[in-house]
Structure formats: structure tokens, C-alpha cells
Design goal:
Helix 1 packs across helix 5 and helix 3 packs antiparallel against helix 4. It contains 6 helices and 13 strands. 26% of the residues lie in helices and 32% in strands. The N terminus is likely disordered.
């Protein structure tokens, strides 16, 4: 929506796990209706790192940290989904998990953008995921016909804990931000966001390296008709 002052969308296990598994594609897709309710979908895809993941999972520990097994990874993902589902303002939360290819699809139906932000932050804290720093103006906020998008997560804290090669591969990952609306878009403040032909969706694609080095690069205000 780690979805953001320096990207850290490690919603399922730990930031170290995220960095070790390196190459990742993150698709942050949010639909916001006129009344502020909507659906947030997050896809985390490690399928390009299958060989690396399986080799890491065969170890007991790496760089002094315990390596989780598949059962622990599954339980962490389930716990995060359950933590989201019980938050105020959340209508439903589901997760689809593919542990053969290491792909997760999270879907959260929310009443307001503020309730989505509060739910994600609270669920992350319950999962003991550190580095959440809510920027002024929030993660995703709706104020009248203006939608503001930012990221509040920080991966830089673990940079010195992983090998340079792992960090380089993480930086080569992809982050895609998509926002969909019931109303036509007049303009975006960020030129990286393209507008769909029907003027009701906008998208920007970045390397994770860009987001790490220049977190404000994904900041955007969308003005609706």
C-alpha cells in the first residue's frame, strides 16, 4: 500500500527472510469507492527465487538467524490474515497461498481508508514486524476527491545484516502500485502514474531499488472528477 517511506512489504514472515529470498514482485492493488470503502489486494511473488528459497529452507540457520520451515511460513501468513480480519473497520480478509512457487495473495475489504491503514499497522505490530513509520498524510487516504498514496515501511535497517549480493537482488525486484476508482481521474501529481483508457484506474511500476533509495518516488495525489 510495506504497499510508504522506504518499502518493506514483508507481511508474511520477517524482513531478513524477505532479503534472503531476494528477487520479488509486489503488486499493491487498491480499489476505493466513492464512500471511502474498498478492497485492497496485495500479491507477493517470490517464484523467480525458487532455487534460492529451497536452498535456504534446507538450512537450520543463515547469517545467525533461524530459517523458518514451510509450516512456520504458512502459520505466519495465516496469523497475519487472522490479525487483519479482527481489526475494526475490516469487513473481510482472505489469503491464498502457494508454497510450491512461494506466492501469496492477500485481499482485505475495508470500510474506510483510515480503517485499512489502522488494521495493517496493528496487524504488523501484532506480528512483531518493526519499521512501520506512518508518514504525514497516511498510507492511503481519501479526502473529498483527492486520494493520497505513500509507503510507511523501512527495509534499510537490515541492509548491513545481509550479503551485498542478496541486497542487490532484492533491489532488482518489482513494485507495482495500482489504484482503481468509481469516478474518473482528472490528474495525478506523480508523472510515473499512467491513467487507464477509461480514466478510472492509475498505475506506476518501480524497481524496489528505486523505492529503497528514493522512497518519495511513489508518493502520489490523484484528483478525481
Amino acid at each position: 500500500m510495506k504497499f510508504i517511506r522506504k518499502i518493506k512489504v514483508i507481511l508474511l514472515f520477517s524482513t531478513l527472510f524477505f532479503a534472503l529470498f531476494s528477487c520479488v514482485e509486489i503488486i499493491d492493488d487498491i480499489t476505493i469507492h466513492k464512500d471511502g470503502s474498498g478492497i485492497w489486494k496485495l500479491k507477493i511473488n517470490f517464484s523467480e527465487s525458487l532455487v534460492k528459497i529451497n536452498s535456504v529452507l534446507a538450512l537450520d540457520s543463515i547469517n545467525g538467524y533461524k530459517v523458518p520451515n514451510k509450516a512456520e511460513i504458512h502459520q505466519r501468513a495465516l496469523s497475519f490474515k487472522n490479525a487483519l480480519a479482527i481489526q475494526n473497520g475490516i469487513k473481510s480478509a482472505t489469503i491464498q497461498e502457494d508454497l510450491e512457487h512461494y506466492v501469496w495473495n492477500i485481499s482485505v475489504e475495508f470500510k474506510t481508508t483510515q480503517s485499512l491503514e489502522d488494521a495493517v499497522v496493528n496487524a504488523l505490530k501484532e506480528q512483531k514486524v518493526n519499521g512501520v513509520k506512518i508518514p504525514e498524510g497516511g498510507i492511503v487516504r481519501k479526502s473529498g476527491g483527492i486520494i493520497t498514496k505513500q509507503f510507511p515501511f523501512d527495509l534499510m535497517a537490515i541492509k548491513n545484516k545481509v550479503k551485498e549480493e542478496d541486497w542487490r537482488r532484492l533491489s532488482e525486484g518489482k513494485y507495482i502500485s495500482i489504484m482503481r476508482f468509481d469516478t474518473e481521474i482528472l490528474k495525478n501529481s506523480n508523472e510515473r502514474y499512467s491513467i487507464s483508457k477509461n480514466n478510472m484506474a492509475t498505475m506506476a511500476a518501480y524497481s524496489i531499488g528505486e523505492c529503497l533509495e528514493h522512497p518519495s518516488i511513489i508518493d502520489n495525489q490523484t484528483q478525481l472528477k
